[in-house]
Amino acid sequence: MKEPTAVRELSFGPSINEALRQEMRRDPNVIVMGEDIAGAAGRAHLGFIDAWGGPMRATRGLITEFGPERVIDTPISEMGFVGAAVGAAMTGLRPVVEVMFVDLIGMCYDQIANQAAKMHYMMGGHVKLPMVIRTAYGTRGDKRAYGGGAAAQHSQTLYSVLAHIPGLKVVVPSTAYNAKGLTIAAIRDDGPVVVLEHKFLGLQAKGHVPEEPYVVPIGKADVVRQGTHVTLCAAGRMTHLCLDAAQVLAAEQINAEVIDLLTLNPLDEETILQSVRRTHRLVVVDEDTPVCSMARDIAARVAEKAFDDLDAPIKTVTAADTPVPFSAVLEALYTPRVEQIIAAVREQMG
Amino acid sequence: MSFETNRNATGAASADAEVPSAPDGEGLARKCLWIYERMSLIRQFEERLKWLVETGTPVGPVHFYIGQEAVAVGVCAALEDSDWVASTHRGHGHCIAKGVAVAPMMAELFGKVTGTNRGKGGSMHITDISKNILGVNPINGAGVAHAVGAGLSAKVRKTKQVAVAFFGEGSAGVGTVHECMNMAAIWKLPVLFVCENNRYAQTTPIEYACSVPNVADRAAAYGMPGVIVDGQDVFAVWRATETAVQRARAGAGPSLIECKTYRYLGHHQSDDTTRYRLPEEEQAARDRDCLKGFRARMNAGGPLTMAQLDEIDERNKRLMDEAVEFAKAGAVPEASELYTNVYVPDGKASR
C-alpha cells in the first residue's frame, strides 16, 4: 500500500512569500520593491539584513537569496517608486511593488490610475506593463480588547477605488492556496495587477498549498460552497464570514451558495448570474464602505441582467459608511458581521 | 532677456558654448546636419499644426514646443537610439528629436487609426515606444518617475542604457520629481534630469513658484551635479548632456541639467500670453532664436552652408505636406476600438 503523502499546509504570508521566491527564481526580470520589504537597508556590513519583510513578512528572506539589486528597499516615496515600477515595466522588468497599506494608495494614485492602468490604452496597445502592486487592507473586526486597532488611516479596504479604474486588474485572495496562485498569475500577467492582502486572515486562510508553482486564473470567481436557496457573494476575509453564515443557515434548512469573487475587476459576472438564476436570491458582502462600492455594483449588474430571476430584493452587507474607528467595540460594529449576513438571508427568505 | 548661462550649481563658470570638437570634421558636419534637420522639422511641425488649429482643424489641446527646439535636439544628440526618454505635455519636440515619424504623429492629432497611438492618445500622449520614448505625459512630473524606472531597469538588466527625464520648471515643484531625484541619487541610477525652464508654468512665472533662483541649485540637495545651460544654444545643451551621459554610463549616477529656454507661444492654443508677459520680453527671447543662432554659427565658419540648410528646410516642408495628407487620408477608428487595448494583452473591458 502506498504511504499517504503528507499534505503541506501554509498560512497566508508564507504562501505569498513562496510565490514571489519561485517567480524570482524562474525569471531574472522579476524584482520586488517597497518600503522595508527587506529592512535594515544597506546595513549588511554591520550584520543587519532582512530586518522586517513587510507587514505579512511576505518578502522576508528574499534579499538573502536574490540580493539588494532585485530586492529593493525604497525611501518613503510611494509616488516615486510606484512610478519607477511603471517605467521599469515598460523597459523589460516585471516589478512587484509593495504599498505597505492600501490606505497609502492616495500617495501614488496618479501612478496607478493615470499611468499604469491607462498606458496600454493610451499608446494604442503598443506597450506592455507587467507590474504588480501588493497592498495590505482590512480590519480585524471582532470585539477582542484590541481589534485591528489601526484606526481610520491604516485599516481601510478601498478596493472600490481601484476596481473602478478601467485597465487595472484587482484581485483579492482569501486563502493561502489562492494567494499563491493569484500572486503568480499577477506576476505573469502582462498588465498591471493589484493584489489586496487581508491583514487578519490568520488561521482562516491556512491550508494546503502545493509546493510547485501554479496559477489561479485572474478574472474567475470560485464557487466555494454549493447551495440552492441563496447566493452569498464576497471577497477576501468576507468569504469566510459567508461560509460561517452558511453553516448557521444550514441548521435552519437554508442552503446557501457562496461565491468567492477572487477578482474584482474584470469581474466574473457570469458565475454570479448563473448562481443567482438557480438560487433566485443574492446577498453581497463587502468589507469596503457602501457608496460606489463593489457590493452596489454587483447588485446593480444582477438587477439589470437577472431581475426576473429574483424572488427577493438584493441585499448588501457592507462596512459602515464611516471612517474606521479605533475602539475595538466600534471597529467590530464598523466591520460586516456574520449575524448581519444571516439576518439579511432570513429577511430574504421571508 | 539675459540668461545666466554656462554656470554650474556652485557658480563656477564653464567653458563658452561653441561648436564642440566632435569626432572629426566630417563627423561634425554629419552631426550638424542631423541637428538642423531635427530642429527645423520640429519648428515646421509645430508651425503647421498652429496653422491647422487656427484654420479650424479639431486636434484637441496642444502645447506648442516652438522656441525650445535646441533643448530636445541638443539632448538627443548625445543619446543612443537605445536610450530612453520620458517626455512632458509639451512633447512633440521630444518625439521628433528621438526619431518618431511626423506622418503618424500628425495622424494621431487627427484622431486617426493610422496615428502613433491608433488615435487613442492625442497630443498629450503622442509617442512611439519603438523609439524608446516612455510616453508624452501631461501629469506633471509623472514621466520623471518612469525615467527613473527605466534607469533602474537598465541597471538591473546591465544594459548601459541611460534614461532622460524631461520636465518643466513648473514640474520642479511636484513631489514626485523630488522623490525621484533622491531615489536616483541613492541608487546611482543612469538618469538625466533635464529641466526645460521656459519660465512659465501656464501663466505662473518661475520667480514666483520656485524657492531658489535656479532649478539646478536643487541638485546639491540630492548630491548630484547641477548644471545650467543656455537652452537656446543646441551645442551647449549637447555638450552638457554628453558629460551627464558619460557619468551615467560609468555608473556614477544621475545629473540635473537646467536648460534656460523660452516658450514663444501660449501654454496651449487658447492661452493669451499678453495677459501675463511683456512684449519686450517675448521679443528678446525671439531675438535669441535657436534656429537663427544655429544658422549664424554655420555662416560664421561652421561646417554647413546656407544652401544645405535651405535644402533641409525645403525637405522638411515636403515631409510636413506629406504628413498632413497622410493624416487626412487615414481612417477613423472602428467603433470596436473603444474596447480594445483596455487590458494587456488585448482583453476586453468588462461591462
Topology of this structure?
The complex is a heterodimer of chains A (350) and B (351).
Chain A: E1 9-10, H1 12-26, E2 30-34, H2 62-66, E3 71-73, H3 78-90, E4 94-101, H4 109-116, H5 119-122, E5 132-137, H6 160-163, E6 169-171, H7 176-188, E7 193-198, H8 202-205, E8 207-208, E9 222-225, E10 230-234, H9 237-250, E11 256-260, E12 263-265, H10 269-279, E13 282-286, H11 294-306, E14 315-318, H12 328-334, H13 338-349
Parallel strand pairs in A: 2-3, 2-4, 4-5, 5-7, 6-7, 10-11, 10-13, 13-14
Antiparallel strand pairs in A: 1-8, 6-12, 9-11
Helix pairs in contact in A: 1-7, 3-4, 9-13, 10-11
Chain B: E1 7-8, H1 25-54, H2 69-77, E2 84-86, H3 92-97, H4 102-109, H5 142-157, E3 163-168, H6 175-186, E4 191-197, E5 200-201, E6 204-205, H7 206-209, E7 226-230, H8 234-249, E8 255-260, H9 279-287, H10 290-299, H11 306-329
Helix pairs in contact in B: 1-2, 1-11, 2-8, 4-11, 5-6
Question: Notable features of this structure?
Answer:
heterodimer, A: 350 residues, alpha/beta, Rossmann fold, 2 domains, seven-stranded mixed sheet, five-stranded mixed sheet, B: alpha/beta, six-stranded mixed sheet, 41% helix, globular, disordered N terminus, disordered C terminus
Output the radius of gyration of chain A: 20 Å
CATH fourth-tier homologous superfamily of chain B:
Thiamin diphosphate (ThDP)-binding fold, Pyr/PP domains
Which of globular, elongated, flat, extended, rod-shaped describes the shape of chain A?
Answer: globular
How many structurally independent domains of chain A?
2
Q: Secondary-structure element order of chain A, as H and E?
A: EHEHEHEHHEHEHEHEEEHEEHEHEHH
Kindly state the percentage of residues in helix of chain A: 25-40%
| Level-2 CATH architecture of the largest domain in chain A | 3-Layer(aba) Sandwich
Sketch the topology of chain B as an H/E string, one letter per element.
EHHEHHHEHEEEHEHEHHH
Q: Helix count of chain A?
A: 13
Radius of gyration of chain B: 20 Å
The number of helical elements of chain B comes to 11
Poorly predicted tracts of residues of chain A: none
Q: If you consult CATH, what is the topology of chain B?
A: Rossmann fold
